[in-house]
Design brief:
Layout: E1 7-9, H1 12-37, E2 41-47, E3 50-58, E4 64-71, H2 74-110, H3 118-129, E5 137-140, H4 144-152, E6 154-156, H5 158-161, E7 165-170, H6 189-196, E8 201-202, E9 208-210, E10 216-222, E11 245-247, H7 250-254, E12 258-264, E13 270-276, H8 278-289, H9 296-316, H10 332-338
Parallel strand pairs: 7-10, 10-11
Antiparallel strand pairs: 1-6, 2-3, 3-4, 5-7, 8-9, 9-10, 12-13
Helix pairs in contact: 1-2, 3-6, 4-9, 8-9, 8-10
Length: 346
């Protein structure tokens, strides 16, 4: 018998400030993106006695490139002035919204909105920063609950969300490669993790990284009985990078729609979380909880997490009905067995 659901609805102040954070975070991301677009410089270079305007920039892999924009003229002089003016404006705009986000974070902390553990939040931001979040990597496992609760405006019992690891679902079908940003210039997942915490190392299990405090990051992928073509199991080019581990049942999550939400970390700062459809997540958790080879303690936690996710869907996500057509990536019997999860509202 499962314990009664333990969830707390946002109060009026929390709802107001969550919405304020969403709006300000969108402005912050736009300002940061604009500033990134203006990275580099425009300088005059003398070639054979003539001045040419050169633009130094960075591609998505973080590689510095330089191109000539033409000889000195009224047009190129205007281009240089416009670029420098735009960069000054972008820096000032980013500085202003960054200060606003600092104030908002203090408000969020005071209201108890900070939920995502700091290290997990930093890892998720690092993955987002290299362009991999939601494109080839999605958050699965316990950390996905932070996306579901935030979108629903509820707080789940910490006993169901506290975890010392993070699972990343690797969609190997697309041959994922990292799109590198200024913040993460290395080309491997392990390198990105080390930018968060230098103590991260690949463990004896090639799919897992672990830091000095024992925090784990697992790279997992679906087990395929008859793959039509060899799957890539490695993210980066580094031979010492993580290699995804195949796990039964993850094909359901791989084929599920992406669910994105803004959550708030322990310090009050926002972050994007790209998880999978909460219906599929709940059904998958329920299925795991019924497996005979699952450890008893984990089975109980899986069952409770499945129940709370189902209740969130039933009570807060009317746009995600429990519909077999929408859940066709799952076996019919598995869906039917999990149906009671979606009958209890928060």
């Amino acid at each position: 018998m499962l314990k009664p659901l333990k969830m707390q609805e946002f109060n009026g102040d929390q709802r107001r400030e969550y919405v304020n954070t969403q709006q300000r975070y969108a402005v912050w991301r736009d300002a940061k993106s604009r500033l990134n677009d203006l990275r580099g410089s425009m300088v005059w270079q003398t070639v054979n006695g003539a001045d040419y305007l050169a633009r130094s920039s960075y591609d998505k892999q973080g590689t510095r490139k330089q191109s000539s924009l033409g000889p000195r003229s009224t047009k190129t002089e205007a281009m240089k002035r416009d670029f420098e003016s735009a960069r000054v404006e972008a820096k000032e705009r980013y500085k202003q919204i960054d200060t606003t986000m600092d104030r908002q974070a203090a408000v969020n902390r005071a209201l108890g909105l900070g939920r995502v553990p700091l290290l997990g939040a930093r890892i998720i931001r690092a993955i987002d920063g290299i362009g991999a979040l939601g494109t080839g990597l999605r958050i699965v496992g316990t950390n996905a609950l932070y996306a579901y609760e935030a979108a629903a405006g509820v707080m789940v019992d910490p006993g169901l969300t506290t975890t010392g690891d993070i699972d990343l679902l690797f969609d190997s079908r697309g041959g994922l490669r990292f799109i590198v940003s200024e913040d993460v210039s290395e080309r491997s997942l392990l390198a990105a993790l080390r930018n968060v915490d230098k103590s991260f190392e690949r463990s004896r299990q090639a799919f897992r990284a672990q830091n000095a405090d024992g925090y784990l990051v697992d790279l997992i992928k679906p087990m395929r009985a008859h793959p039509s073509k060899p799957d890539s199991t490695q993210i980066g080019r580094d031979a010492a990078d993580l290699v995804a581990s195949e796990i039964e049942g993850l094909v359901w999550l791989e084929n599920a729609p992406t669910f994105e939400a803004m959550a708030i970390d322990e310090r009050g700062y926002p972050l994007n979380i790209a998880a999978v459809d909460p219906r599929v997540w709940a059904i998958h958790k329920h299925w795991i909880s019924k497996r005979l080879d699952r450890e008893p303690v984990k089975k109980r936690r899986d069952a409770e997490q499945a129940k709370v996710a189902g209740a969130i869907v039933a009570g807060h996500f009317p746009h995600l009905p429990f519909d077999t057509d929408a859940l066709r990536m799952l076996p019919i019997g598995v869906v039917a067995d999990a149906a009671p999860l979606f009958l209890t509202e928060v």
